[in-house]
Amino acid sequence: MLPSAPVFKALTTRQAHLSVKTACADLVRFHPDVSMLTGIAPGAAVDTKAVYATLAREMLPKELAGLLLEAPYEPQEGLEYVMGAEVFEMEHDGTPVVAAAVPAGVEVVPLGDDDVPEMLKLTALTKPGPFSKRTHEMGSYVGIKQDGQLVAMAGERMRIPAAEDGSAPAFSEVSAVCTHPQHTGKGYARLLMSTVMLGIQARGERCFLHVKCENTSALGLYERLGFRSTKILHFAVLRSVL
Known about the structure:
- The N and C termini lie far apart (about 40 Å).
- An 11-stranded mixed beta sheet has the order 1-2-3-4-11-5-10-9-8-7-6, sandwiched between helices.
- It folds into 2 domains: about 5-85 and about 235-240, 3-Layer(aba) Sandwich (Aminopeptidase), CATH 3.40.630.30; about 90-230, Aminopeptidase, CATH 3.40.630.30.
- It is α+β, with helices and mostly antiparallel strands.
- The longest helix is centred in the C-terminal third of the chain and has 15 residues, at about 190-200.
- It has helices at about 5-10, 50-60, 115-125, 190-200, 215-225, and strands at about 20, 25-30, 35-40, 65-70, 80-90, 110, 140-145, 150-160, 170-180, 205-210, 225-240.
């Protein structure tokens, strides 16, 4: 099973190289150009007020921090609640992924630095979740282009190591699954997700993802692909008012 506080786990292990240093050991943050995701260490002994105070002091003007919390966000001094949502944390059941059929005339292509402007444009239009100019550095990204335009994409976000005692495998998160509104209904999301998932499974890892509880259409697809909800988390986007 996926460990609690996945953002903290990812940023203190496999993705530590994408973090920025903070003055509090219980607070971790991706570089703002990579992601707004911010993690707090799990455990009742953590001084959450001190953690939030550090976050408020260290955030730049207009910068946003996104937290995945076990309980609804409670107001903290120095921080403004911008928006939020309940999200399902879903884990794949581990069954072998079956490659989706590729429609005639469609090619799945890897995405990289040169594709960032189009990736930002597509995610701004479709809003699959936070996406910044270096988010693609978190893992592998693939897409579909039509007439030179990126019309669909998917990739990897958080990456969690296997448990030291062997009780749980390594995990990689499937993320940024989105399709241009003019190209929906063509099976692109399933095709790209299965491509990403096959890559994760080839590394001996388990897939997981996060999705808004209200996104019933996406939930249906994810369940058909073998994902099962394990818990509800509370996503909170915060801004410093210091």
